[in-house]
Amino acid sequence: MNLDNKKVLIVKPSSMGDVIHAIPVAHAIKRVYPGSKIGWVIQSGLESLLSGDSAVDEIIRIDIPSTSNPGAPKRAYLDAAVATFRQLGQLRRKFKSSGYEIVIDLHASFRSGLISMTCPKSFRYGLEDAKELNTFFQSELIRLDSSKPHAVDKNLACLSIFGIESAPEDFLLRLPDDVTHEAGRFWSNIAPKDDKPVIYANPCARWITKMWNIHAWRRLTEMMINQLNATVLFGGGQGDANHINEILEGLSENRIKSARNIAGKLTPVVSAAVMSKCQAYIGVDSGPMHMAAFLGLPIVAIFGPTDPCKVGPYTKLSVVIRNTNLDCLSCRKSSCTNLRCMNEIGPETLFQALKTLL
Predict the structure, then answer these.
(1) Alpha carbon distance 16, 287 (integer Å)
(2) How far apart are CA 202 and CA 283, in angstroms?
(3) Cβ of 182: how many Cβ atoms within 10 Å?
(4) Helix H or strand E encompassing 97
(5) What mean pLDDT, rounded, does the chain reach?
(6) Contact, 130 vs 109, CB < 8 A?
(7) How far is CA 159 from each of CA 26, 31, 130, 250, rounded to the nearest angstrom?
(8) What is the pLDDT of residue 254?
(9) Which pLDDT belongs to residue 298?
């Protein structure tokens, strides 16, 4: 199918990592069919990831409260349902006069299926393994290769329908000039004045089961500062700042000068621009890890309840650390009383992996 002069809508609202996984689809379509118009439905707060990307012509922001966040209130499902129906009405009115001809639903949920249906005259593509009745909303299902289970590969499977093959340049985060300038100003205030390496560390995730313990992080930070003479930038969202402060509070006064907490101080895309100036990423399975992969950084990633074959860093410049002595790995539990999969991993293991990559 030729997509030149066609209007294509990508439905992938959240989360940060999932949005990053889908960006190569937009890049590949625009590269092969530059005359296409690509729109993207995205959750409020994540739109900066696309705002400077020339492949995306229209960003359609929605605002629906999360129900998967462990800290979500008891009313989360009701609030999300009310917000969903409100947003569906707004989208339906928008697309009635300026609808998209093709919808690619990469989110594969019941809600994203409803969003797809707000384009009344569109032809809708969805993943064949989608759950929550999503497949009933689609005009055609995208066939998947079971030998390629990674989320990025599943998203890329839709390209064959349009006669497209991915290229290396599709797997890069595109940072506009104003973002790189803002990151440069921020960097000038925090970066070391000498040639010391700067490591971007991300200790936080939405699931408590993905997080490594504070004492291990503190010990790893000391090793990076003492043995690599590194500056460590701890990044994350506004809600992660207190947790990072707990890690840093145990450092000596001399060492704490080489560890900075920048969580919540930057938008996601400016964080990416700052991260691109670092020598490596080290941290847990979360959105910033996928950001680092598409920036070309060497990555040391800690995995427990999630499967790196499906959601690991999509780059060869990475080392995944797991506690392989357990049978319960990749359980996909967001809460657990037994956190051995993460807590039995020693900081020395991560540090040696980092030294090897550097």
Answers:
(1) 5
(2) 5
(3) 17
(4) helix 76-97
(5) 94
(6) yes
(7) 10, 12, 17, 50
(8) 63
(9) 97
Nearest Cα to Cα of residue 223 among 232, 235, 212, 214: 232
Share of the chain residues as helix, strand and coil, in percent rounded to the nearest 5: 45, 15, 40
Answer for the pair 236, 269: CB distance below 8 angstroms, yes or no. no
Q: Is the CB of residue 178 less than 8 Å from the CB of residue 36?
A: no
End-to-end Cα separation, the chain, in angstroms: 44
Structure token digits, residue 143? 């066939």
Residue 282 in contact with residue 201, Cβ under 8 Å?
Answer: yes
Q: Look at residue 111 in the predicted model and tell me its pLDDT.
A: 94
Per-residue pLDDT tens for 157-180? Answer: 999 999 999 999 999 999 999 999
Residue 217, CA distances (Å) to 71, 221, 224, 283 in order: 23, 6, 11, 9
DSSP helix/strand/coil, 154:
helix
pTM of the model: 0.93
| Residue 27 amino acid letter | H
DSSP 206-217: SSGGGPPPHHHH
Q: Which of 267, 296, 28 is nearest to 172 (CA)?
A: 296
- Spell 261-288 as b/e; 16+ CB within 10 A means b: bbbebbbbbbbbbbbbbbbbbbbbbbbb
More confident residue, 126 or 253: 126
Reduced to 3 states (helix: H, G, I; strand: E, B; else coil), residue 184 is helix
* CA atoms of 174 and 278, how far apart (whole Å): 17
Give the 3-state secondary structure of 180-198. Answer: HHHHHHHHHHHCCCCCCCE
SS3 75: coil
What is the C-alpha to C-alpha distance for residues 290 and 283, in angstroms, rounded to an integer? 11
pLDDT at site 71 = 65
Could you give the residue ranges of the DSSP H alpha helices within 229-346?
241-249, 253-256, 268-275, 287-293, 308-311, 340-343
